[in-house]
Amino acid sequence: MRKRTLMKWLIAAVIVVAGFGAYAARSKEATNQQSITAVGSTALQPLVEAASEQYAGDHAGIFINVQGGGSGTGLSQIESGAVQMGNSDLFAEEKAGINPKGLVDHKIAVVGVTPIVNNDVNVNHLSTKQLIDIFTGKITNWRQVGGPNIAITLINRSQGSGTRVTFEQYGLKGHESAVAQEQDSSGTVRQIVSSTPGAISYVSFGYVNKSVQPISIDGVRPTEENVIHNRWKIWSYEHIYTRGQPTGLTKKFLQYLKTNHIQTTLFNKLGYISVKHMQYQRSWQGKITKGSGE
Amino acid sequence: MNRTQKQSRTAILILRLIAGLVVLILAFLIGYIFITGLPNVSWRFLTSPAKAFTAGGGIGIQLFNSIYLLILAMLISLPIALGASIYLNEYAKDNWFTSTIRTAIEILSSLPSVVVGLFGFLLFVIQFNYGFSIISGALTLTIFNLPLLTRNIEEALAGVSDDQRQGGLGLGLSKYETIIHIVVPAALPGIISGIILCSGRVFGEAAALIYTAGQSAPALNFGDWNPFNIDSPLSPLRPAETLAVHIWKINSEGIMPDLTKVSSGAAAVLVLAILIFNLSARYIGRKVFEKMTSVN
Amino acid sequence: MQQNQKLAKQLMKKSKTARYERFGHLLSLSALLLIMAIVLGIIIFIATKGLSTFFKDHISLKDFFGGVIWNPGTQTPSGQQAVGALPMIVGSFLVTILAAVVSTPFAIGTAVYMTEISPKRGAKILQPVTELLVGIPSVVYGFIGLSVVVPFVRHTFGGSGFGILSGTFVLFVMILPTIVSMTVDSLKAVPKYYRQASLALGATKWQTIWKVVLRAATPGILTAIVFGMARAFGEALAVQMVIGNAALMPHNLVSPASTLTSVLTAGMGNTVMGSLQNDALWSLALVLLVMSLFFNLLVHFIGRKGAFKK
């Protein structure tokens, strides 16, 4: 019995000593390691994450945590000051329950949103009116817009999602979509549209691939070039909000995101459009003015 | 053969059919996961870090995170669950108080994990200021894990026959000594199978971790095992995306071209890992059982 | 004299074993109290968040439980707040009950097979497989549901394939292992001599299983079903992928519907803490909590009534 007790104490002592040893031996960098956190929009997450990996690769001892959680989470976290950067698909002014005062908007990128349909539908263009009628439930069969005799299945993003807000505001001209299926991520939307006959939904340009058919509206094709000249109206900014003017590492990282290198190489690969290329800018009330705003 | 015997035959035949059908369903599921997933698994896939938007990413860090998080969560929750189930099964009197506690535990287990996750987010990440980290994730998983683990261990303890307890008390051992030295070892196989069940659930849990352990897996320095360094794999304060969260994330927002390959490969690895746990825990359980029963 | 006092003191003092005993008792009690504190914490947390919809945002209970239009922050055509949770409540109930109804016979059949008919094969094949299945993450179930179950339902029953029926199929498989393994535990807990006595009385194997073993294990089996239902009830990611998430009253089993959890999970990240939109989601969580409380009480009641007197 006594021997066992002794063993227990010995093990405890070894653990404590090892703990102190590890603490004392921690790398000296640890003391001046810096870390900042960005939370929010799942659409913006891959972009910021990829940029942060490159940035951390160039600067030792820097840790940039990029988390999803949705635009609502991003805005409420930055408002409460729990994180350094809040990612959002929407202007803070547009989001219910957020006091935009004190928040500084950094427009990082522009993202275009396009309607997509199932490949079997064989429709690749619609007029704005047809699009509105489809999404408000007035048109229920593809035959009515020149397609085959297949019933239309609407698929929406979740209420409050940035993509949905953008689509309803600029694609449906402020009309609200009929109550229908909802999915809370672009990947799932694409998968469902590609596998469900007669399905229609909308995703940002980066998610369009061969498995779904993008739709031209009023003869305008959903391309980057058309977004830059505001011919394609369904686009929005991706925002990073900071509380007050950014300082220190946050400031450096935001500057890094806006450098030409990142904006041209990384953004293109991910299907985002650089803010600098934009010929037009838009205020949160939807007012369009010429100039990139940069 | 009389009527009741016939009835018995038929009933048992039906039972066999049901069991066979269930095995078929399960075999289909596992077969589906392995057949679509295993061809994508390679040593490189298991060890290299994930890629955000180009093909060829692996799941090395996620796999490590999953295992580390599971071990931490189990280390925290096992003593609590063991203590609570000992109290419930051995000490608690059968009254309204006990049944209230049981009901409360059952309610906790039926909460959707996203609610537990948000609770963990507000408490550990924000209130305690642990940030998106392994420790926040482990504590949240503990909350998520406790009810079922307690329930399973209690079930195992209840399965130990009362003769064993009387034997212990008859030898002059106190009740607690009887429990620790006789009841718990006797219930060990049941306890271990309970732990396996819970490990599987914890390993595959995503919703509770999205807001707590986070969805990013920063590169780790596998040459540095000092838990006080933030890039050490053992650091409890680093964000840690697990395998299940990774599958969820790339399926919902992933834009890499080989998304389905990574996702099905990761799913196969996840199921395979659980299979390995299963077998090893079973083996360890049997060994421990043999050892403990022969000593005491 | 002094000697006597010393002796008395020693005798009055608790023995080492007794102290050890008290220590163990307290230790296990404190573990339990910790769990209780967590449960209470979560309940209070959800209750305060969920009730603020009614107290802070002044939504009437009638609009919440009777309304069928869900779009918090906007108004229905008739001028009420669009916070009708009825479609989700109905959806959750339907999916859970249907899944439990479908899986219970399968689960009990499998469990009986594993314990009574072929324990060897049960332990060798079925048990590891069921334990393995518990570990398959719900997102994987969701994707198998999306690529296998939804097209199957679409071809066989019509509609888009998304709906209560697909949700039921996916949940059926998901809760099966939970119910099986817990039923097995409770069947194993039935003492051997019950079976021996029954067989000695001339009962057939089936009569023994049906009239003795299952009867004795009824409370345990009911608990297993509740746990299965609880899992079905709280399951979010997998159901969300196959049910369609349309906040509409389900017309039939193949029209898109939604559950409390699917709306909760999908909406949480898009709303801002403290806003009406967010509070309304927490109210859904509260409904979830109250519903599971109700289920639990129901089962306790049935369990007590149907318990086999030991």
TrEMBL record, chain A:
Family annotation (NCBIfam families): ptsS_2 (TIGR02136)
Gene3D superfamilies according to UniProt: Periplasmic binding protein-like II
Sorted UniProt keywords: Cell membrane, Lipoprotein, Membrane, Palmitate, Phosphate transport, Signal, Transport
Residues annotated as domain PBP: 28-257
Position of the signal peptide: 1-24
Main location: membrane
Family membership noted in the UniProt record: Belongs to the PstS family.
Gene: pstE
Organism per entry: Lentilactobacillus fungorum
Protein name (Swiss-Prot/TrEMBL): Phosphate-binding protein
UniProtKB/TrEMBL annotation, chain B:
Keywords, in A-Z order: Cell membrane, Membrane, Transmembrane, Transmembrane helix, Transport
Record membrane topology: Multi-pass membrane protein
DNA-binding in keyword set: no
Domain (ABC transmembrane type-1): residue spans on this chain: 63-281
UniProt key word Metal-binding: no
Subcellular location: Cell membrane
Principal location class: membrane
Transmembrane spans: 12-35, 67-88, 100-124, 130-149, 179-203, 266-284
InterPro entries reported in the protein's UniProt record: MetI-like, MetI-like_sf, Phosphate_PstA
Family named by the database record: Belongs to the binding-protein-dependent transport system permease family. CysTW subfamily.
PANTHER family cross-referenced by the UniProt entry: ABC TRANSPORTER PERMEASE PROTEIN YQGI-RELATED (PTHR43470:SF4), PHOSPHATE TRANSPORT SYSTEM PERMEASE PROTEIN PSTA-RELATED (PTHR43470)
Alphabetical list of NCBIfam families matching this protein: 3a0107s02c (TIGR00974)
Name under which the protein is recorded: Phosphate transport system permease protein PstA
Source species: Lentilactobacillus fungorum
TrEMBL record, chain C:
TM ranges: 23-47, 85-108, 129-150, 162-184, 212-233, 280-302
Gene3D superfamilies: MetI-like
CDD domains with a match to the protein in the record: TM_PBP2
All copies of domain ABC transmembrane type-1, residue ranges: 89-299
Swiss-Prot/TrEMBL keywords: Cell membrane, Membrane, Phosphate transport, Transmembrane, Transmembrane helix, Transport
Presence of the UniProt keyword ATP-binding in the record: no
Topology of this chain in the membrane: Multi-pass membrane protein
Subcellular location: Cell membrane
Record carries keyword Transmembrane: yes
Function: Part of the binding-protein-dependent transport system for phosphate; probably responsible for the translocation of the substrate across the membrane.
Family: Belongs to the binding-protein-dependent transport system permease family. CysTW subfamily.
The name this protein goes by in its record: Phosphate transport system permease protein
